[in-house]
Every structure is written in C-alpha cells, then in structure tokens.
Amino acid sequence: MSIAKASGVAGFPLHEHFERPEQQVDASKLGMWLFLATEVLIFGGLFVAYAVYHYLHPELFKAAHKFLDVRLGAFNTVVLLFSSLTVVLAIHGAQQGKKQMVLWNLFLTIVCAGTFLVVKYFEYSHKFHSGLLPGYYFTNATVPSPDEAHIFFGIYFLMTGLHGIHVVIGMIVLSWLMFRAYRDEFNPQYYSPLEIGGLYWHLVDIIWIFLFPLLYLIR
Amino acid sequence: MSAPGKNYLNCKKGFASWALTLDHKRIGLMYLGSIMFFFLLGGLFALLLRTELLSPGHTIMDAKRYNQLFTLHGAIMVFLVIIPGIPASLGNFALPLMLGAKDVAFPRLNLLSYYIYVLGAIVALGSLIVGAVDTGWTFYMPYSSTTDGGVVLMVTAAFILGFSSIFTGLNFIVTTHKLRAPGMSWYRMPLFVWGIYATGIIQIMATPVLAITLLLLIVERVVKVGIFDPVLGGDPVLFQHFFWFYSHPAVYIMILPGMAVISELIAVFSQKRIFGYKPIAYSSIALAVLSFLVWGHHMFVSGQSELVGMIFSVLTFLVAVPSGVKMFNWLATMHQGSVSLKTPMLWALGFFVLFAIGGITGVFLGVLNVDVHLHDTYFVVAHFHYVMVGGTFMAFMGGIYYWWPKMTGKMYSEFWGAASAIMVVVGFNLTFFVQFLMGAQGMPRRYYNYLDQFTIYHQISTVGSYVLGLGFVMALITLLVSLKNGKTAPKNPWHGASLEWTHTDAVPIETNFREQPVVTEGPYEYR
C-alpha cells in the first residue's frame, strides 16, 4: 500500500489508499496531533507527581532547587527556543523550494539539540559527583533534610531524563528529514513530513518551557 | 484491480506476505489468532485456579503458585486479550470496510502496532523465566516494589502493550475522520464505528497515563525514588490514583467495542432499522467522557476523603444512564422486528442478560456504604466477570461469528455454533452467579483458602467453569472446522445493509472495493 501513485499534483507521492493529496496531509497532521496529546499526558503524570510532592514539601523543594544551575538552565531554554525558529525556517524554505535553506536550518536545529544535551551532560555529571541523585543513590549531606531531598532529585531526573530521551528521538527524526531533504524528496507541493517532524520538535521545546521554571525557578 | 476469484486471502502467498502485510484485513486476522491463543492460555490458568478452589486448603498447588497464577490469568486476560480484543481484530477487519475506505489511515503504523503487541506478549511471558509475578494484575504499591519475581518485566510488558493500544486507537480515529467514502456522513456511519471511535478516544487519552505510572513503578523498584513507597517518603495511594486513572477508562476500552458489536448484531438479526441511532452513538461518547471521572470508586476504602468518595459515587451512578440508553434502544429495535436466532444473535442475547446483571451489580458497588461491605470480595469478581466476559467477550464471540463469512468465505455449522453459545451462557452463570452469593457473605477475593461454609459455592463455581471452558473451546473448534468443511459463504448471508456486506465480494479483494462506494443512505436500511 505504500507505493506512491500518480496524484495529479506533480512531485506529491500519494499513498494508494488516499484519494487526494490534501486528504493524506490532513490525515498525517491529525495523527501527529493525537500523538502529541499522548505525549502531553505522559508528561502530565510527572507534572502531577511534581505538584503533589511540591505541595507536601514546599520548603524542601525551595531548598533543593538551589542545587540546580539557573544559568545553564536559562542558556538551554534560549537554545531550544532558537531551535524552534530554525525548524520553522526549514519548513518555510521547503515551501519556497529552497533546498539549501532547508538543509542549513535543519542542521542548525540538530546542532541546538546537541548543544542542549552537552549542557545537560555537564549538569548531570556535576550532580553525580556531588551525590545529588534519586532514591538510595542520594549521598549529599549538605542539602537541608537529606532524608527527603532525594524525592526532589528523583523527580528532577525523571522529568529531565524523559525530556532528554525526547530530544535524542528528535535529533534522529531531524536527521532523517535532513537526509530526505538532501535526496530532493521535498518540494513546494510536498513537505508535510517536515511539518509533522516540526510539530514534534515544538512539543519537545514546549515541555522544556514548563520544566525550566518548575525545577529551576522555585520561589 | 484484482482479477475475478482473487481476494485478500489468496492474492499473495507465503509467510512474508502475511508477516509484512499492510492490509488491515490480514492484520486483523493476525491479531485475532494471537488474541485467541492468549485467551486459551489465560482460560487454562482460570481453570487451574478454579480446580485449586474445589476444596479448602491445598488441592493441586501451594499458595505462592496460586498467587502467581491469578496474576498471570489477570494480566494475560486484561492486557493481551480483552483490551486489544475487539478493536484490534474485528475493528481492524471491519472498520475500513464499513467506512468505504481502502485501508486504515496509517497501514505501516498498523503493522507496527501488531509487532509491538507481539513484543509485549514475549516480554510478559519472559517474566515467567525470571520468576512469576504474584502482585495481581493491578501491581499495587508498595507490595510490587518489594516482592520477588519478574515484576519489572511484567510491568514493562504492560508498558509496551500500551503503545500498541495507543497506535491502534490513533489509527482508527484518523481513519474515521479522513477516509470515509463519499456520502458517508457521521450519521451514516454504522454504530460499530461510533463505538470504536469512542474507544479510540479513551485509548489515546488514558493509556499514556498508564505508561508513565508503570515507568514510575519500575523506577521506584529499581532506584527507590520514593514516589509511591511510604518507607521512602512516597504515597501508595498516589499509585492507586494514577493506576485507576488509566485502568478505569480501560474497562470502557474493553466494553465499548462490545457494545459497538451488539448494535450491529441486534439491528441485522432483527432486520429492522436501529431504534435511536443518535442516542446510541452519543451514549458511546458519553461513556468515553464519564470513564475519566469515576476512577475514585476503586478507592472508597483506601483512605480518600468522604467528600471525594461521595462525588465519585454520584459520578459512578451516572455511568448507568448511557448504558441504559443503549440497552433500551436495543430492546426497542428488537420489538416488532423479524428476529432470527442465528448464532451471532444468540451471543448477543447472552450479552443482554449477562451485561444487565453485570451493570446493575456495578451500581451496587458504586454505593459507598454497600461497597465497604462488598469491597475485595467475590462480589467484585463476579461483577467484573459479568461485565467483561458476559459483556465484552460474548459480544466478541458474536462479532467473530457475524463477520466470519466475510473474513474467511466459509459458513460455520449453525448447530454447533448455537450449542456452544448456549453452553457458554449456562456455564458462565453456574461459575459466576454463586460468586455474588459468597461475596455478599464475605468470601474475600484472591484468597487461597476459605472457610468450610463456602465449599458448596466454590464447588458449583468450579464445575460451572469447566462447562464454560468447554463451551468456549467448542465455539472455537466450530470455527476452525468450518475452515475445512464449511460451505462457501454468499456475499451477504445476514442481509446486512452496511458497506462490508453490500459493496464487497464474498471475500473482499485486497483493496476492499472494486469501485469506490458512494453512500446515499444509512447503514440500517434493510429490504
């Protein structure tokens, strides 16, 4: 069924079970939006866990969050926001048939994602060294009430870890899109994979926009 | 375009043509085979459990083994049989046909979801190698983070299977929105499609919460993060909230497709336009919405506040309204119809009786003070089985018999089909009705041993379970025999009026329709 057939629109590979190009594009977009809903709900569970324990231990969360580096978190926020711009510019380039613009902007997006992960690596390794770890790996004695502080770091690692996995998946998706763009598969009539990949990448950004204040900017 | 005599079963041959197929009909059959395999496995465990309960104390196994077996029975039946059940098998086969589509919206995703199911099944069985789990299928904290055995593997399996379910639901929702034939407006869709659509909403909205809950459980067990375990500062009731926020909607993932099948069976075998099309359609959506608002009724005795308990109790009563809407509309459809008691209709009528009992006892359990008495007794076991087996599985069997001629091109033996349906209804009531009685008298569920006063109930129940098991096996053998000996099925043996009967060959071709169907009337206009 995946063999493309003549669609009446030049350059648009229409799958056999669709009748019209816009039907195929609409279907894939709706599918992605539904998938994004499931992603929000997956993270939703962690947000609920965060809310419950923040409510139960407000002082603890305030004290423990000081062990996170706000400057690095802010830097990563800017990096991801910038990558949302580049991914939009890549789609814009495809709409106008500018291959170089697509390739360069996808490349920049992947570089941003990589930068984000490198910064995250330094943040994580600092916490590993000072024993700010979840559960019974927690060994840091300088945190106030260390018996319960491990819960904050458990939630921190769960949320940022799951988000980090999404960044890695995003890099794979973006690389695959770049490969397809390089092979001239996209044109002003057909660029919906870029839009769908872009939607996913925006979600990865938006989740970080919520994680950053919740974890780094507690008052 | 396919040549005459070619259909989706014989157009391509060989293992790879099945293993790598993107045809929704073949994927539906592969699901059906796998689900039936696990149904027999889960059923075998159930019979072993019932045999153990034939007499108090040790009968054929020790207590530890008993706990492992009821966990396996529950986990297999819930995650591998009844949640994928109707949508993945019958839905995959029939939904695109009913909409006049050539396939589901994302055929490759559809195949992927099947293999995710297979992977989940393998991981679930893999947990047996590490050591069977004894937590029950609900994996309650903190026991599940401290007991030995392959809890991590079993939970991982449920996590993986969740994604199979999400992708199936997503596929059906997009297909329903974007791939309807010309003229197929929302109110011309068969009610089966409405039911599967409502199921899809729950699969997408609830399953991710299960995924994160199970992930947290795994992390809790491996790293001891202290989110659920009170020893580490966690809250075990939070686990119950998380778990039931998925698992209550999940029982509607199980029952809504059953109701969806029943709507088709009642209309076709009464040869009468369905009574109250729109109320039935919207009651499916209403059940999908309500399913998210009642999870707290699993925790009436878990220390939740009285006010919260009362709110959940009232919301639980509301579920009876759309369920009742469906039941009465089906009854009204049969009224003055020309009812024919073919095998699928017998399964549907069995559903009627059993689901009515299951549904009403559900209201008893939703009453706060009654639940304090009945909680964690065999009354709950009986209620659950009346809804899930008496409801969903009866509908599932009815649906299989109904679409069997379209799936395989063969007619089954009407005598043996009817005999097995009747045997299942008799065996089912023998097994589970007495469980209401002993539950009301205080027999706790999941107990290995019991007081002598319950012996007679347990013995009736066990004998009934053998009749029930035999009935199901007979029903499946009847189908298998028809593959070899069955008469060739006509194009429309039941005089159905939906597209899969009116516009396809006796066995559909690979792309379903020889010409694009154009819909001009509703799916229940019989002549």
Overview in brief:
The complex is a heterodimer of chains A (219) and B (527). Chain A is mainly alpha-helical.
Describe the structure using short key phrases.
heterodimer, A: 219 residues, mainly alpha, Four Helix Bundle (Hemerythrin (Met), subunit A), two-stranded antiparallel sheet, 2 strands, 74% helix, elongated, B: 527 residues, Cytochrome C Oxidase, Chain A, two-stranded antiparallel ribbon, 17 helices, 68% helix
**Structural class based on helices, strands and sheet pairing of chain B:** mainly alpha
Number of separate domains of chain B: 1
Major sheet of chain A: 2 strands, antiparallel
Into which percent range does the helicity of residues of chain B fall? 55-70%
Global shape of chain A: elongated
What's the β-strand tally of chain B? 2
Kindly provide the radius of gyration of chain A, computed on alpha-carbon positions and rounded to a whole number of angstroms.
21 Å
- The run of helices and strands of chain B is HHHHHHHHHHHHHHEHHEH
Write down the secondary-structure element order of chain A: EEHHHHHH
The counted number of beta strands of chain A is 2
In DSSP terms (H or I, runs of 4 or more residues), the helix count of chain A works out at 6
Overall spatial form of chain B: globular
Summarize the largest interface: chains and residue counts: A-B, 40 and 43 residues
CATH superfamily of chain B: Cytochrome c oxidase-like, subunit I domain
Intertermini distance of chain B: 30 Å
In what range is the share of β-strand residues of chain A?
under 5%
